[in-house]
Amino acid sequence: MSGEQKVVIVTGSTGLVGSAVQIVAKKEQRPDEKWVFLSSKDGNLRNIEEARAIFKKHSPTHVINLAAKVGGLFSNMKYGCDFLRTNMEINQNVLQVSHETGVKKVISCMSTCIFPDKTTYPIDETMVHNGPPHPSNYGYSMAKRMIDVMNRTYHDQYGCMFTSAIPTNVYGPYDNYNLEDGHVLTGLIHKIYLAKKNNTPFTIWGSGKPRRQFIYSLDLARLLIWAIREYNDVNPILLCVDEEDEVSIKELAEMVVEETGFKGSVTHDLTKADGQFKKTASNAKLRSYLPDFKFTPIRQGIRETVEWFAANYETARK
Ligand code: NAP
Ligand code: GDP
């Protein structure tokens, strides 16, 4: 972005991804950009009048739309309808009010879990609507796919530049460490923290065989800020590490064990679901724009996240 003053609002900026966007945007502040960081305390985006009031107050020219109901496999299996309704409502309202107020660009987040369950690999941006998603996160996935449908219809009917990013599994500081609702890495870190404290075994849920591509929240933040400045295509863009950096849940757990110095016993609870086996995605499109982008090595990201959790145990979401 260059030229006239931009007002970038970031919805959901108190969450995992939004906190990282705050850190990076403040560090890389540009004179022609004013950043406004919002959370649910500034208004409930499920309510269109509250969304209108937020946009009236800040007059954004650009929106990074991160507000969402987000959770791990087990939360998605339990609350599919809530994931569907909440995310449909937030995204409908944010995009409609952006249209009404003439916002120049919106980037919203989808996720790699929304791709068809039965697919060829690697997954790419053209495959979003090719078949039903994995049944474990049907509600969330269908709500997220509608972002792409809305972006295209707002573009075709009204000429809006509304687009989307597709991150793989994200991790980092400020995540939700709730054992029932959170994602795998927060679950592993929190369970090891408790196992060390209470001298009890550490249990990995499921077989540990599923594979995931993890992206550090601060890397994702750098990419989202690049996208709101430079990416002008309604079609989505996958934001993820290289395919060879995919790891199994077992390998992930081993890294957390090493980074926490846990010496106790490690077990698997095979009564717990494995979820989707893999959702390996290609970052070829991203690399065509940013061939030299350096991702934080997963080991370093885990180390920083483990340290953050230990230092912020009392206040972390859990
Ligand atoms: P998160 O940590 O759960 O944060 C969610 C944010 O949304 C919070 O700031 C929350 O505000 C806000 N929010 C929730 N409901 C709201 C409402 N009704 N009105 C206004 N604000 C509301 O989520 P995240 O992991 O950062 O996810 C950010 C985006 O990335 C989401 O679109 C998500 O689908 C996508 N994504 C995440 C992952 C992942 O692994 N985490 C992977 C792929 C894509 P409060 O703090 O005030 O409640
Ligand atoms: P997903 O990538 O959308 O499936 O979501 P998650 O981040 O919740 O990862 C789920 C995978 O991690 C499944 O294979 C689970 O069996 C496995 N897993 C192992 N331990 C945990 C844990 O403590 N919490 C969660 N959420 N998943 C775990």
Automatic annotation (TrEMBL):
Domain NAD-dependent epimerase/dehydratase: 8-233
SUPFAM superfamilies: NAD(P)-binding Rossmann-fold domains
Molecular-function annotations in GO: GDP-L-fucose synthase activity; isomerase activity
EC number: 1.1.1.271
Domain of life assignment: Eukaryota
Pathway assigned in UniProt: Nucleotide-sugar biosynthesis; GDP-L-fucose biosynthesis via de novo pathway; GDP-L-fucose from GDP-alpha-D-mannose: step 2/2
InterPro entries: Epimerase_deHydtase (IPR001509), GDP_fucose/colitose_synth (IPR028614), NAD(P)-bd_dom_sf (IPR036291)
Keyword field: Isomerase, NADP, Oxidoreductase
Coiled-coil spans in chain: none
Any Pfam family: Epimerase
Gene3D superfamilies according to UniProt: NAD(P)-binding Rossmann-like Domain, UDP-galactose 4-epimerase, domain 1
Annotated function: Catalyzes the two-step NADP-dependent conversion of GDP-4-dehydro-6-deoxy-D-mannose to GDP-fucose, involving an epimerase and a reductase reaction.
Family of this protein: Belongs to the NAD(P)-dependent epimerase/dehydratase family. Fucose synthase subfamily.
Protein name, as recorded: GDP-L-fucose synthase
Species lineage: Eukaryota, Metazoa, Ecdysozoa, Arthropoda, Crustacea
